[in-house]
Amino acid sequence: MLVLQSAAQGTGGEIFVLDMGKPVKIVDLARQMIELSGLKPDEDIQIEFVGVRPGEKLFEELSHTGENFVPTNHPKICRFISQPLSLSEIDQTLQGLRANLHQCAPDEIKRQLRAVLPDYTPHLPAAEPAPSKITHLREFGRQAKKSS
After folding, report:
1. What is the pLDDT of residue 142?
2. Is the dihedral of CA 61, 62, 64, 66 positive or negative?
3. Less Cβ around it within 10 Å: N or C end of the chain?
4. Cβ(120)–Cβ(140) under 8 Å?
5. 135-147 vs 87-100: helix axis angle to the nearest 10?
6. pLDDT per residue over 14-23, tens digit each?
7. Nearest Cα to Cα of residue 76 among 22, 145, 147
8. How far apart are CA 39 and CA 34, in angstroms?
9. Is 17 helix (H, G, I), strand (E, B) or coil?
10. What is the per-residue DSSP string for 91-132?
C-alpha cells in the first residue's frame, strides 16, 4: 500500500523511503514459510546457515553523507533529496573509466570505482580506507577530463 501511496505523491524522479515497520529475521520468515506449506521446520525441511557471501550486506544503508529525507503528507513515507550530479559530470567520469578499462590491472579499476562510489568495497590485496564523500565522483570526473 505504501508503494502505491508514494507513487501517487510522485511528480517524476523522486526517490521515496518507506517505513516498513520492524525488521523481520530471515530465519523467522523461513520458518513461517515452511509452516504455511504444511511442513515442520528442522524436521521436514532443514534450514541451513551458509554465512555471508562476498558483496552481501547485513543491512541496507538508506542514505549517504550529505543526503537527507524530508517528510511527505504520509507519516510512513519520506522523500529522499540529494544534490544530483550533472549529466556532463557523469559522462566525464564514465569516459575516464572507459579509457582505463583495458589499460589498468583489475585492482586499479576497482580503486578507481571506489573513488567514484565511496560505499563500494572491492576485494583488494591490501585494505584501503573508503573515500568519505560523493564529491570524489566530481573530482574523478575532473581528472578524467584533464587526461582525455
Report:
1. 54
2. negative
3. N
4. no
5. 60
6. 888 898 888 8
7. 22
8. 6
9. strand
10. HHHHHHHHHHTTTS-HHHHHHHHHHH-TT-----SS--PPP-
Encode pLDDT of 43-86 as tens digits. 999 999 888 888 787 777 776 666 788 899 999 999 988 777 78
Q: CA 4 from chain center: how many Å?
A: 22
Give 17's contacts (C-beta < 8 A, 6+ positions apart).
Answer: 62, 69, 77, 78, 79, 80
Q: What contacts 67, CB < 8 A, 6 or more positions away?
A: 80, 81, 82
Contact assessment for residue 93 and residue 116, using Cβ atoms and an 8 Å cutoff: yes
Q: Are 67 and 82 in contact (CB under 8 A)?
A: yes
How many residues in the chain? 148
In degrees rounded to 5, what are phi and psi of residue 45? -135, 130
Q: What is the amino acid identity at position 69? A: F
Which residue do the cell numbers 529525507 mark? 69
Amino acid at 59: F
Over residues 97-147, the pLDDT tens digits come to: 888 888 888 888 888 888 877 777 777 665 555 554 444 455 555 555 555
pLDDT of residue 5: 92
Q: What is the largest CA-CA distance in the chain?
A: 64
